[in-house]
Design goal:
Blueprint (H helix, E strand, L loop, with lengths): L3 H25 L2 H9 L3 H8 L25 H19 L7 E5 L4 E6 L13 H17 L2 E7 L13 H18 L8 E5 L12 H7 L1 E7 L11
Parallel strand pairs: 3-4
Antiparallel strand pairs: 1-2, 2-5, 3-5
Helix pairs in contact: 2-4, 4-5
């Protein structure tokens, strides 16, 4: 047997030391750092990476945009964005909003939350459902906890006709965005200066909308969270 056991024993001790060092690092890490680490173990993250890391504003709303980067290379803003994205995913999942009705992604400018209008509003209207109010309560928590601004964007699908109060797609999509902003201010106590609201009618569909499932994806509300220093042309409206 000779001295080969010494090599095996040395490898074992090295692995054991590495394990205890990892446990110590995790124990000392902040909640924000743990949230960043957790992002790398989500199926959505690796599905996005395997797909080439393409962004989600044009339609892919399941994961984080951008390519894999070392944790050491993440800026404080990046870490905040990842922590917020993870919190949103966990909260929406706990609220039993189905995955096909929601999506969260991040990029260098902020976090995009997309929720199908059917999960937030009564059909063909801008009247909030209780489930919609729960989503907005979470939006308010994010704004307060992380010192962020939000742009609320309303979208309709091409088949929606509105009603007597909202006679067209522009009015309906704008009314949905405005209803969200009004709730955030009047019921959730968010400062009006932190919110912008805009409606797009049906001019920015995610998918063609030829089926009921595709139409449901297009009638949606988007919340783009960004930090105060991200302003001007960097904020997508």
């Amino acid at each position: 047997m000779g001295g080969s056991w010494k090599v095996a024993y040395a490898d074992f001790v090295t692995a054991l030391m590495a394990f205890f060092l990892l446990m110590w690092i995790i124990n000392m890490a902040s909640d924000e750092t743990k949230a960043v680490l957790a992002e790398f173990f989500t199926p959505e993250y690796w599905e996005n990476v395997s797909a080439g890391g393409q962004g989600s504003r044009s339609g892919n709303i399941s994961g984080r945009t951008g390519k894999t980067r070392d944790l050491e290379a993440l800026t404080p803003a990046d870490r905040t964005y990842l922590a917020v994205a993870q919190k949103l995913r966990e909260t929406l999942s706990a609220q039993h909003i189905p995955p096909e009705a929601r999506g969260v992604s991040t990029d260098k400018d902020g976090i995009l939350l997309q929720v199908n209008a059917d999960a937030m509003f009564h059909p063909n209207s801008a009247e909030l459902l209780p489930e919609g109010e729960k989503v907005l309560d979470e939006v308010a928590d994010i704004l307060g906890e992380y010192n962020m601004f939000v742009v609320v964007r309303g979208h309709a699908d091409y088949q929606e006709k509105g009603n007597d109060q909202y006679p067209g797609k522009w009015e309906l999509s704008t009314a949905r965005a405005t209803a969200c902003a009004r709730y955030l201010v009047s019921s959730a106590g968010v400062r009006p200066s932190l919110i912008k609201a805009v409606g797009y009618g049906d001019i920015r569909p995610l998918v063609p909308g030829n089926t009921p499932e595709e139409a449901a994806k297009n009638r949606r509300v988007e919340f783009f969270f960004h930090r105060p220093e991200v302003s001007g042309t960097a904020v997508p409206y």
